[in-house]
Amino acid sequence: MQATNVTNATNAATELPTTATNHARRPKLFGWLLIAPMVLWLALFVVAPLIILLVYSFCQRDDLGRIVYQFTWENYARIFDFENPIYLRTLWLSILYAGITTALCIAIGYPVAWFIARQRETVRNRLLMLVMIPFWTSFLIRTYAWITILSHNGLLNGFLEAAKIIPGPLEMMYTPFAVVIGLLYAYLPFMILPIYGSAEKVDDSLVDAAHDLGAGPFRAFSDVIIPLTWPGISAGILLVFVPAIGMFAITELMGGGRQPMIGNVIQNQFLKARNWPFGAALGIIFTLLFILAYAFVQYRASKQNHNQ
Amino acid sequence: MIQINGVTKRFGNFTAVNDVTLEVRTGEFLTLLGPSGCGKTTLLRILSGFEHPTEGAILIDGEDVTDLAPYRRNVNQVFQSYALFPHMTVRENIGFGLRMKKVADDETRRRVADVVKLVALEGFEERYPHQLSGGQRQRVALARAIVPRPTVLLLDEPLSALDAKLRVQMQFELKRLQKHLGITFVFVTHDQEEALTMSDRIAVFNKGRLEQLGAAGEIYHHPKTAFVADFIGEANLLDAEMISRNGVTGCVRVEGGLELTISLDQWPAEMTRAIVTVRPEKVFISKHPIAAENVFEAHITEEVFQGAIDRLGIQCVTGTTQLTALVANESSLQEAFHQGDRIWCGLHADDLVVVRREE
């Protein structure tokens, strides 16, 4: 009798872990169910189009702009034509503009984000609201507003002339300056918000400790504050730099299409030139650039995270 | 030597530190003690340079540092939350101060290694703060603050996050370290036991004011105000009125009607009312009559077991005077006291400390 009891007990003991694993596995399955719509969405609207794009980029087109499914390197050869590198130059310019925009976004956005993060909670929320309010207006309307500010007879010229700072109106619209202003304006919140997210978590006492140990404002910033807010900075770089390379609406509206960016070129290949395979090849190169930028930032972030 | 000269700090209408004048001697362990909101932390932040006093001045070794930024003062602080840099290893955290002071690399290495040994953190140099226990983090914070060799080390309740056992151990370790290094320590705490254990001198604060400054024993045995008597340790506070003077002694009537003889040197001639304080462990009780002054009959109305000691509530037989007494949980050879017992209770005149009533 006693022996049976012992066996029962042992059985129960051996069975217990199985139930435990089942129990642990259940949320996993449930989790998959929860993200299934998202996975489906990504597969249908991101992965599939990318595959189509990749296939197109190796195809040819006939005179009517229809796709001819015949393998060719021609599209890529045209991009990497070092004799006549117009597309590489465009790409390089786009990266340059995006780089300048990103740098300016950090330079302007970082102090703003830090300032907001150091306020009392009620003030903080109000300031964040101010950063986000422009999103409620249509992007195009906001861009047109800049045109009225920067144009030949615009507000800024009017003001500068009235204040006798300049003798005649400055040519600001349809210049690289206008393009950068437009990009900066459009992307600044995408830099401020992630940096704010990181800055808010930086404990005041860490900054105090840095000062206490003899770090002046600059060293405290470079040795303590920057490393601690790096996740926010890198997220901001991704959110600004990558989309800014491909932006075509601002370059068209504020740059007047004088200096087409890579986004404009791709748009033209698809809509006007009806050369889908070439547009697709540009798109693929562009996507590779995205992935590279992302991988770089992730690599740096993982190195940082590893240390924390 | 640090001189705090008439320092006042106001935040809007609130006066956090009210006209404090205090001298910290070189090499001493001074504790700023008081309840939360008494201004002790604000005073510490003024010493470290994070707050600027509204009035008054801070002098360190004769030099006026009132307007000096924290990073220009030769003062280091151990923060309550430790404030270790999460992105740096133990070694980098400890070496941070030396790096900021541009100390040569090999000297930095040597000094960091020395201090790591001093706080017993060998083998943990490459760990990150999140990989350490609370006690280890505490030691890193301490090491980081002492390695630049500050004139004075400020400690803001550094032990409050530790559990009770570790805390007692760290109290002794800190004290040993302070003696070993000979650095002036200014230690902030609200824990009077911690203050009594560690300090050379204690400055008791209440509502932004310095109530009393003195050695631990002095503060405990001769409190100058009712607040100090009550805050440090435990005390019976009895409102008292002088009824007759007789040469060197006087007779006072305390609340509840009990009459006590006290020595008059504690009681200025012009004063009629004051507070008589007596420590509960100095309330002597016996089951047999005692031939001495200030002996009266009483009942034990309450008995609370506290381990090594018993806390007894005592009520006089005549009148309504109540006292608290602490008695050691006696050996079986001695008399035992229990609730309901009728006893004789004695207070020695030397144990009765007179403090002024707060107006």
Helix/sheet category of chain A: mainly alpha
Largest interface comes to: A-B, 21 and 26 residues
Listing every helix as H and every strand as E from the N terminus to the C terminus, the arrangement of chain B reads EEEHEEEHHHEHEHEEHHEEEEEEEEEE
**Oligomeric description of these chains:** heterodimer
Instruction: Estimate the mean pLDDT confidence of chain B.
Output: 91
Instruction: Give the overall shape of chain A.
Output: globular
How many separate helices of chain A?
A: 12
Describe, in plain words, how this protein is organized in 3D.
The complex is a heterodimer of chains A (308) and B (359). Chain A is an all-alpha fold. Chain A has a single domain (82-307), classed as MetI-like (MetI-like fold, Orthogonal Bundle), CATH 1.10.3720. In chain A, 78% of the residues lie in helices and 1% in strands. Chain A is globular and about 70 Å long. With 359 residues, chain B is α+β, with helices and mostly antiparallel strands. Helices cover 23% and strands 36% of the residues of chain B. Chain B has eight helices and 20 strands. Chain B has helices spanning 40-48, 90-100, 105-118, 134-146, 164-181, 192-198, 216-221, 226-231, and strands spanning 2-11, 14-24, 29-33, 55-60, 63-64, 75-78, 152-156, 184-189, 201-206, 209-215, 236-246, 249-254, 259-263, 273-278, 284-286, 295-306, 309-316, 322-328, 342-346, 353-355. The radius of gyration of chain B is 25 Å and the shape is elongated. Classes of the chains: A mainly alpha (308), B alpha+beta (359). The A-B interface holds A 203, 205-206, 208-216, 219-220, 223-224, 227-228, 304, 307-308 and B 48-50, 69-71, 75-77, 79-81, 83-87, 96-97, 100-101, 128, 130, 144-145, 148.
